[in-house]
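Fold it.
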Amino acid sequence: MQFLDLAYTKPYLMTLHPDREMDVAILGRPDIARAIVEYGPTPALGALLEGGRFEIRGLRTPARGDGYDPVPENNPELPVSQFVFHLAGLGRGQRVYYRVTVFDARGGCAQGDVYDFRTAPAAGEPFSFGLMSDLQLFKPCDHTIHQLGRHPLDFILYAGDMINVAWHAGDWFTVPGAWQPEKMVGMSFFDIMQRDDGGIRLMQYMPVFPCPGNHETDDNRVEGNRQWTLEFDRYSWRIYMQIWRAYYPDGQYGWSGKHWYSLDYADMHICSLMVVRCNPWSPFEAPGTILRGGAPGPDSAQGQWLAEDLRASKSRFKWIVMHWHMMNRGDDTQPLLCQPVPDPADPSRVTYPVDNAGGFLHPLFVQTGVNAVNYGHSHVYERYLIDGVHYIEAAYMGVKYGKPDGKVNPSGIYPVNQQHDFRSYLVISCGGGRLRARAYQASMEPGGYGFEGRVFDEFDIV
């Protein structure tokens, strides 16, 4: 019996305390009766731990042989078991090897491969990480991620939109026998992010620190139904938050829930925020694009938490990851940090009272010493530098949506660097009291220039 005969995914890693703990998780069939992990400081392993079992609710397989019924409830729910192994008492900068074995009720077992990870080092020690977002099953993403995965990374910051439709089981992982569009075969999130051929090291070897995007909503019909968009009790992020349960232990899945967290990694403090909009109409058509639950304003639960969290942190570097862009060129450059208000001159229109460089978040970032903010959504590479804060969208992994000659943000600020001509990814290394960022070209488009692996943007964050 092979490991993936019982499991849907290989192991993946998550943690809120990367210096001393790690959660190893798998998603699998209900046929798995129990699962164990063996781990230790060498490939010989040594220690053994039983996995805690959870049931992932809400994933569905296609009702038809040629696709999903658009109504989720008309598609059969797929029973999915999640096993989580909590490895505690680890040392800083420790290399840990591990292997997961699963057992069925008949006594059969399937043993996984041996993988390894490194816990966060002590402050002052070097580390590296990558930025990514918006895979969404696009075929070219696989090629981009293969290049990113060959860099020696310690973790990944993922700025949302892992999939297209959260309740589609096949968006997350391959379900044998279940329909998938031909162009998306092998492009499921875990399929791409767990490949380990050719020296690639991704989710089995390092934790991913994600935030939710607009595609992580449980029922995507709230994206296109104008009435539903305004009915906040229809919103839930249960599927995403169950898969990444280590970051959301309270399980507050609804509109008013806690969808944010923070952690320390060596010299860096990381905050993951819930910043997405509802936009089934144009940005300036009433009622405008509404910030979803937990909008990070000064009077919101998320905003108050963030201000307290950043002011309490003593880390040398502070980094924010969220989905919706702080700065961007294109049709959706309306301000991010406020709710729309009626336009006094035209009741069918709305305005936004602050621009992206003002309002609440940017002043807070400046006051608390935030070094960088990365986000996604528009599938471009753009970098801004405002009052010492770097705003980075490194999201052209598969396809691009932004416009290189699009409208400039209402703040009037232009990007320091923008690149829409080829796919790319960004790697950041910490050492010598600074962060060194390098953006790499990942594709040669028709009529293009450069070469794969070329560094087209390099800068320091101090």
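The longest strand covers residues 95-104.
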